[in-house]
Amino acid sequence: MIFFRSRSCQALAALVLTLSLTQPVQAEKLSPEWQQQRDYYNVLSDDACEGDRNAYLKLYSAAVGEDNAVAANDLAWLYLTEHCAFTDDEDAENAIAMQYESAGAGYPVAITGYAHRLMLGDGAPQDAEYALRYFDWAIELGYGTAAVALAKYYFEGEYIRKDYGLAVKFLRIARREGADPEDLQSLATRLDDASANDIGEASYTQNPRWEYEEGQAGWDYISNGRLNARVFVDTDLETGQLYYGLHRASNDPLIHFMGASVELSSGNDQELHFGRCGANNCLESAEPEGQTSYTHLRIPIIASQRDATLEAMKSGSTINFRYQTKDSLAQNKFNNFTLGLTGSRDAIEHVERLSAKIANQSEQPRVDQSTSVAPTVSQPTQQPNGEFATSGISHYEGDVQDGDVLCLAGEAAGYPSYFYAEIPEQFQGIYLEDPTKRIKPATTDFLQTTGATLWYGLTNGLPVILYRDGRAVAIQAGARNGVELKYEGMWGIDPLQGIVMRLSGNPSYNGGNYNYECRGGTLATDLASVVTSTMWKTCHMALYCTEWYENYDEKKEDFKLLQLKEWSPEMLTPEAFKWAQEHSKGR
User: Fold this and answer.
1) d(C-alpha 522, C-alpha 419), whole Å
2) What's CA 532's distance to the chain center, in Å?
3) φ/ψ (deg, to 5) at 330
4) 3-state secondary structure at position 318
5) How many CA atoms are closer than 13 Å to the CA of 461, on its beta-carbon side?
6) Using CA atoms, how far apart are residues 24 and 195, in angstroms rounded to an integer?
7) How far apart are CA 423 and CA 497, in angstroms?
8) Which residues face 539 on adjacent strands?
9) Adjacent-strand bridge partners of 298
10) CA atoms within 13 A on the CB side of 252
11) What's the count of helices (H) and strands (E) in the chain, helices before strands?
12) Residue 424: is it exposed, middle or buried by C-beta count within 10 angstroms (0-12/13-18/19+)?
């Protein structure tokens, strides 16, 4: 019979039903909430095993009368250990149910014991996949013995597929969690005796489903024994903030992120919200000496998008990341990486539980990192709830006079190389051969130091507002309905592509969920107006955009020239802009 009272089991090498039930010399310590109870009830169960009736009655009373999880697990051990007093065939029938209930209460020892039953089919239907879930649960609770056991199962390959790479992985986890040194050394020796080539650098193997480990759920794409990419969902261990993202190993680094979508069971794609993380805003790259370079993309999941994002990733079949690399940029092409979501629900829900636990334990209010804004002298700090200032200074085109300067962007020596690569030749002439000499290249610093800017010329006469925190919205204002958000998305500045922007339309607007993905833009100063004698300085953005409806394959490319209409040093709400106020009044 399989039963463990201590947190460290002995001699699991053969992985058969004759597992040791003796208490090890050096038991791994549990968390304080369990350790004191384990010590107390282990003594009672040992005494009861030797025939102490008072000890047995105390143990029975705690297990049955008080529903104590630790006592229930020890009482079950007593009933199932043949050499102990009070062993009874009738009571033995209820023992496994006691262990199951104890596991359900979160007692790591019972969880591990029941995991063995499921793996071996001893007292429970044999179900290796369900057993792995129980082992993962115990390991999540910090139980190193569960990691040792799982490592041995992977090493032996009798009940699950043999996988030395995973055996090494769980052995390392077990060592970190303080599992019994004798168990660790025994398995390490056996692994060393196996082929070194099997467990060296090329020890990665392709797992069929997502896994959970150390606060992160994810799936690795393996090719020729090497890690190529990983899709993941994880949480900040201090704040509980949730993230999703991509880890990509390649010597052609990812330099510009353009979006991610999940293929649902219906066959439709669902775009995932990525806030300010377009372009290179959330990319981290490294080139370790003697190893493959990698890029890490980690995207905060904001509160308003949490349910939709996580449910898509838990229920979808694949996730596709769209981006450009150095090589694809040189070829004016786009790349994508599709990764599997099989088994993601259980793994992601582990992360959600951990995130909730961290959030509940935090004494300080938690600011959503994906929308917080660093304070400056000219710009108030955005509140944790994401609200903007409802009033403040605004510089509006309608208020300018002859000689005024609306745009504060500094003039640049010339247009960057990406400008020529992205802007069609017929439009390049407008800038490069401008006979009036009024249009000149400008720097993008103005956008990064301004609270919000409002631009005209992207779509159907709707102005686009770019906020300093990376959010972008397109609005419509009118006397009948006031101010309405028609598109939402992000923008950023990529050192290799200039201004980049992504907007997704409200499904109720424009006949469906329409999308804009713009790149290769720049700022240019412009003295206007040609029509009147009034001369004042503003700015333009030149963008090359891809446009498409959400559920249609057809896409089109178009050049867009946006003109600055209004800006504010503060984070104004859309309705607080003077442009919106005038149009809402029917002017």
Assistant:
1) 7
2) 53
3) -65, -30
4) strand
5) 6
6) 30
7) 11
8) 525
9) 245
10) 11
11) 16, 20
12) exposed
Return the number of other C-beta atoms located less than 10 Å from residue 531's C-beta.
6
Task: State both tokens at 292.
Answer: 């493959």
Choices 3.40.640.10, 3.90.930.12, 3.40.50.2000, 1.25.40.10: CATH for 32-198: 1.25.40.10
Strand pairing of 269-271 and 216-223?
Answer: unpaired
The per-residue pLDDT for range 1-48, each reduced to its tens digit, is 444 444 333 223 322 222 222 233 345 778 777 888 988 999 998 898
Residue 555 CB burial class (10 angstroms; 0-12, 13-18, ≥19): exposed
Domain 211-361 architecture? Sandwich (2.60)
Q: CB–CB of 323/500 below 8 Å?
A: no
Asked if 376 and 507 touch (Cβ cutoff 8 Å), the reply is no
pLDDT tops 90 at residue 580: no
Mean confidence (pLDDT) of the chain: 78
Greatest Cα pair distance, the chain, in angstroms, is 107
Nearest CA to 573 out of 425, 382, 421 is that of 382
Give the C-alpha separation, 547 to 557, whole Å: 6
CA separation for the pair 486, 458 (Å, rounded): 12
Question: Which tokens in the block code for residue 34?
Answer: 């369990």
Confidence of residue 225 (pLDDT cuts 50, 70, 90): low
Rounded Cα distance, 104 and 83, in Å = 28
Asked if the domains 32-198 and 211-361 are classified in one and the same CATH topology, the answer is no
- With 0-12 / 13-18 / 19 or more C-beta atoms within 10 angstroms meaning exposed / middle / buried, residue 80 is buried
CA distance 171 to 168: 5
String of b and e for 30-43 (b: at least 16 CB within 10 Å)? beeebeebbebbbe
Q: Is 159 helix (H, G, I), strand (E, B) or coil?
A: coil
Contacts of 381 (CB under 8 A, 6+ apart): 372, 373, 374, 375
Q: What is the CA radius of gyration of the chain?
A: 31
Burial (CB count <10 Å: 0-12, 13-18, 19+), residue 224: exposed
Half-sphere exposure of 574 (CA within 13 A, CB side): 23
Residue written as token pair 């979808």: 316
Best CA proximity match to 313, nearest among 278, 273, 348, 337? 348
Torsion of CA 126, 127, 133, 138, to 10 degrees: 10
Helix, strand, or coil (residue 429): helix
Helix 32-49 × helix 53-60 angle, to 10°: 140
C-alpha to C-alpha distance for 77 and 83, rounded to whole angstroms: 11
* Residue environment code for 17-27, b if the CB has 16+ CB neighbours within 10 A, otherwise e: eebebeebeeb
Q: What's the token pair of residue 268?
A: 């439709």
- The angle, 0 to 180 degrees and rounded to 10, between the axes of the packed helices 69-80 and 53-60 is 130
Q: What is the pTM assigned to this prediction?
A: 0.42
pLDDT score, position 92:
64
Cβ of 106: how many Cβ atoms within 10 Å? 14
What are the residue boundaries of the structural domains of the chain, listed by start?
32-198, 211-361, 395-584
pLDDT single digits (tens) 466-498: 998 888 999 888 766 778 888 888 888 877 778
